[in-house]
Amino acid sequence: MGLEEACKLFDLSGKSAIITGAASGIGRAVALVLARFGADVIPVDIDQEAAEKVAEEIRGSGRKALAVKVDVTKKDEVENMVEKVIDEFEKIDILVNCAGIISAEPISSMSDETLDRIFDVNFKGTVHCCQAVMEHMTDRESGKIVNIGSSISSLGSVANLSGGGASYCSSKATVHGFSRCLAWELAPEGVNVNVVAPGITNTPMHEGVWEGAQDYYLKSVPLGRLAEPEDIADVVLFLCSEAARYIVGQAIHVNGGQFMAG
Ligand code: NAD
Questions:
Q1: How far apart are CA 15 and CA 92, in angstroms?
Q2: DSSP assignment, residue 119?
Q3: How far is the CA of 102 from the centre of ligand 1 (A)?
Q4: Residue 97 CA: which ligand 1 atom is closest?
Q5: Which of 18, 26, 130, 258 to probe ligand 1 with, by most ligand atoms within 8 A of CB?
Q6: Fewer Cβ in 10 A, N or C end of the chain?
Q7: DSSP secondary structure letter of residue 106
Q8: Residue 156 and residue 163: Cα distance in Å, rounded?
Q9: Which residues line ligand 1 (CB under 6 A)?
Q10: What pLDDT, on a 0 to 100 scale, did the predictor assign at position 1?
Q11: Where are the alpha helices (DSSP H) in 37-124?
């Protein structure tokens, strides 16, 4: 195989990709890298204005992009968005679930409201989006779904500054379990489902929640730096590409060695 043919493994030209949480951080980086590799992109977020900016950036690079305001906790909004995307783009090849929120409430005082909110966005939001695209993908016997889990929160131990984070860690562990079940169900129908599990990543998510957490965690990363959103997005790109055709139901940990799995 020559270089040109090898590069085609990563060519996403003609593919359309829905990215949730695409207005910021990891989701934004995923939207931009998939577009750079040729995909048309649908940045989906509760923050319409910021999602539109990402779409504009993508259109500026010559790809098609449509920002859609969706609260992923609302199943009807997710379903309407998927219908709109199929109308406009004819098909959905890729779904990347990045929308997520965090809480640092300690277990002793963790409220039901916090638990519900964290699970609604991180777990049920992911489920809603997968449910909304799965029949379309299985009908076409083709598709890639990447759910963003969490490396140290789901599998490692999280010793954080405030002693909190249980709702977040639990919600992320469910994403891993759900994704394995979905992978089993969809692989025979031609759809690959996998998880990318980031370590601590330099995004706005921690702002005002775990003050100082990034410096704290830095000490336990063998690579000696926190992840940038692009470090995570490049691995998502790989999983969305033809090069990852035989990868199913895996959680790829992208954490600079902070937590070593496998
Ligand atoms: P971020 O805050 O930069 O981006 C999250 C995006 O999700 C925001 O644009 C936000 O508006 C959107 N969002 C929140 N609630 C939503 C809803 N109900 N409907 C639609 N969109 C909604 O955070 P990030 O760090 O880029 O996080 C992206 C994903 O990566 C999350 O699932 C997060 O849990 C996961 N993750 C992040 C880290 C990290 O250290 N940053 C580590 C592991 C996993």
A1: 7
A2: I
A3: 8
A4: 32
A5: 26
A6: C
A7: B
A8: 15
A9: 20-21, 23-27, 45-47, 70-73, 98-101, 121, 125, 148, 150, 198, 200-201, 203-205
A10: 82
A11: 48-60, 75-89, 112-118
Distance 195 CA to ligand 1 centre (A): 15
Q: Which two tokens stand for residue 140?
A: 């076409």
pLDDT tens for 137-158 read 999 999 999 999 987 776 655 5
Spatial contact of 220 and 258, defined as CB atoms under 8 Å apart = yes
Domains and CATH numbers, the chain: 12-254 (3.40.50.720)
Mean pLDDT score across all residues of the chain: 93
Higher pLDDT, 220 or 70: 70
Edge-to-edge strands, sheet with 16-20? 68-69, 40-45, 16-20, 94-97, 143-148, 191-198, 251-254
* Residue 227, both tokens: 């992840």
* Ranges assigned E (strand) in the chain: 16-20, 40-45, 68-69, 94-97, 143-148, 191-198, 251-254
Active site residues: 168
Q: Is the dihedral of CA 176, 240, 25, 124 positive or negative?
A: negative
Q: Whose CA is nearest to atom 19 of ligand 1?
A: 71
Give the residue, by CA position, lying nearest to ligand 1 atom 33. 100
**Measured in angstroms, how far is the CA atom of residue 256 from the centroid of ligand 1?**
20
Quick check: pTM over 0.90? yes
Residue 133 CA to ligand 1 centre (angstroms): 20
